[in-house]
Amino acid sequence: MTVIADQAAQTIQTPRATPRHYLMCPPKYFTVEYSINPWMDPGTPVDTDRAMAQWDELKRTYERLGHTVDVIEPQPGLPDMVFAANSATVIDGRVLGARFRAPQRAAEAEHFRRWFITRGYRDLVMPSRINEAEGDFAWTGQVLLAGSGFRTDPEAHAEAQEVLGVPVVSLRLVDPRYYHLDTALFVLQRGADARIAYYPEAFSAGSRRVLERMFPDAVIANATDAACLGLNGVSDGKHVVLPGEATGLAAQLADRGYEPVLLDVSELRKSGGGPKCCTLELHS
Ligand code: ARG
User: Deepest in the core among 46, 85, 221, 229, taking most CB within 10 A?
Assistant: First the structure.
């Protein structure tokens, strides 16, 4: 009996990929000309062509894995628009737009709003509170994990719950290097048996206890993996796209049956970004 139960448990936990639909924005106008997080140093040169090559490789990787990628037109003067994840949260076709904390990024929200309208998304609400979308929101398929502390207002969590009609779990970030939830946590597998990976030190003591309680079998990243923005990963349930330096995390994931895909995102990291920041998931 015990053996059968163990086998059943293992079957449920076997990583399985499901097709995803993403929205991305090419880094045509990418630079680091202002500093709104500790990774950004306007004095460090940025190679925009190299950023574009890294972004292209990310997009091609998704396509090779069988996912659909839509692309929004980049806009001059909005160097951070490449970080599409910050611009909307989409669940079951409902869209909650973004409202940026930094004035330098404010105009991005409207470009994305228009993209959704043109694409026929009718159920769209622009938030009244500061809300940096999937930068601070992670959908497990059951609950929306929501970060605050640096960007998204805690009041935006309640607004997201009301607009999207999903339960929200608020988490507090405490380390300025991990200023968005998606720099410290990502969902490996969605659903009733959702799995996540995270870096505990990025969270307040109470939030850590919440995560331990909700996800006792989470993958726990170490400081080295966090420091290359290794938690800015994108998982389709099996393949996990990560910054190339996150080798410890990749090994842990491989041990659990996932397939890590390591990519060079070094130029995008100069702005505090990684694979996930460049990827808005359209949860249909
Ligand atoms: N330079 C951008 C900012 O500070 C990076 C955003 C990264 N996006 C993310 N989802 N973490 O706003």
Answer: 85
Domain segments of the chain: what residues?
21-281
Q: Tell me the fold of 21-281.
A: L-arginine/glycine Amidinotransferase; Chain A (3.75.10)
> pTM for this structure?
0.95
- Ligand 1 atom closest to Cα of residue 85: 10
Q: Could you confirm whether 180 is annotated as catalytic? A: yes
Q: ipTM score of the complex?
A: 0.97
What's the 83 CA to ligand 1 centre distance in angstroms?
Answer: 6
Best mutation site among 83, 131, 276 for ligand 1 pocket (most ligand atoms within 8 Å of CB): 83
Q: 3-class secondary structure for the chain?
A: CHHHHHHHHHHHHCCCCCCCEEEECCCCCCCCCCCCCCCCCCCCCCCHHHHHHHHHHHHHHHHHCCCEEEECCCCCCCCCCCCHHHHEEEECCEEEECECCCHHHCCHHHHHHHHHHHCCCCCEECCCCCECHHHCEEECCCCEEEEECCCCCHHHHHHHHHHHCCCEEEEEECCCCCCCHHHCEEEEECCCCCEEEECHHHECHHHHHHHHHHCCCCEECCHHHHHCCCCCCEECCCEEEEECCCHHHHHHHHHCCCEEEEECCHHHHCCCCCCHHHCEEECC
Question: Which residue in the list 157, 180, 239, 283 is annotated as catalytic?
Answer: 180
